[in-house]
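Minutes, project check-in
Item: structure for the 484-residue chain
Input as provided by the requester:
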Amino acid sequence: MTVRTVLDDIRRRPGTGEVIPVIDPATEDQITEFTDGGAAAVDEAVARARATFESGVWRGLPGRERAKIMWRIADLIEEHADELNRLDSLNAGMPLIAAQMILPTCAEMFRYYAGWCTKTEGNAYDVQMTTGITGSAADLHAYTLKEPFGVVGLIFPWNGPIFNACAKLAPALAAGCSSVVKPAEETPLSAIVLERILAEAGVPDGVVNLVLGYGHTAGAALSAHPGVDKIAFTGSTEVGKLIVQAASGNLKKVMLELGGKSPVLIFDDADVETAVFSAAMGIFVHSGQGCVCGSRVFVQRGVYDQVVEGLAGMANTLRLGGPSEEGAVIGPLISQKQLTRVMGFVDEGKRDGVEVVTGGHRLDRRGYFVHPTVLTNVDRGMRLYQQEIFGPVVTVLPFDDEDEGVALANDTAYGLAGSVYTQNLSRAHRLAKRLEAGTITLNCQLVYDHALPFGGYKQSGWGREFGKDGIEAYLQTKTVYAQL
């Protein structure tokens, strides 16, 4: 499919709700539009998914056959890399090179979980017990079964459209689930291509069902739908709480990958040049629109001024621009709504006495661009310190010793990620245990592997994605006893 074909396809899709514009965040121009499918589209999609699950057209396939199809999906993702890269780059405003770096992981996600299709076995036990009915001794054979959850709703965000779709679809398909997927209303374009890829690879019709619409219409209807057995959501903590409430009707299971306010601890003995570069990229990449971005940097006093100066230098060096602008490494914020949110935090901080070392303003050009911003003299009670901004804004605070640094890092409602920079390996591994977060990186940032689990502590989410934990999230365990 060409980009033009996708733009025409989405415009023609039926719906019953509001017409939603799709905006290029680098230019503020409308690139296409679509009609909100709303609750009616969700009802139809859930019915199709339920029918395929009950028929066994997908979950009933031998694991090796599902694996072959998933390998084909991976091959097709690579074959369609050019249009997928250009669509995500256009739709999310990210530099093309960023999209190109993400896509290989999407294909590998399907290959990795294809391997799990034949490995979802349970366990067997021999049990000797006194039965409650006869009071006599009995020998039993017992075993566990791993079974797909059923119909799952997959809701993913705008900050990595094709990546987030694959991260949820690959384990759900490997487990044998049928699904209804809803991309963010801001970034639906690459999902159209992925839908075609699934069909071409041999996924039976109705096993994966795409629904387009707003979060408060289609997303809310999917979260509350009595025909859905589980919801997997990536997005803000605020919306995650709404999903939990909506899911309570039929007590559907919920997996949440939510917000973060990730701390970065830089000690006096750190390789400061590496720490500054990594910390700067760890918050300014994708204009800070990443759940694991290190938005709170804590620096031991001996190198505090050096780190602040270095972060400001990086903020002033990194070039901002749209996908087609040569040399651009940072794109715009996703929307006017997000721009207003980010600048609201910064402007409020200025009024409260925060020192803006650099940035703190919108670029004087078209597009939702905010200059990478470094803030000091920040009070820990301030809203911009406590809440996730999801923009290229970092606060930098000093600390004296390890205990104070840990206390500052853990002083948050979030717990998604954390980073430590120190040459002292004992300290590094000691802090890995003390920091309250699901992923800790030592002398590096923004690293992950899809074979290892990912998820948050505290209000950063429920459950884990990736690795064995990722497929377990889409499986239920059944225990069977048989008297011999």
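Outcome recorded: The two ends are 59 Å apart (CA to CA).
No further action items on this chain.
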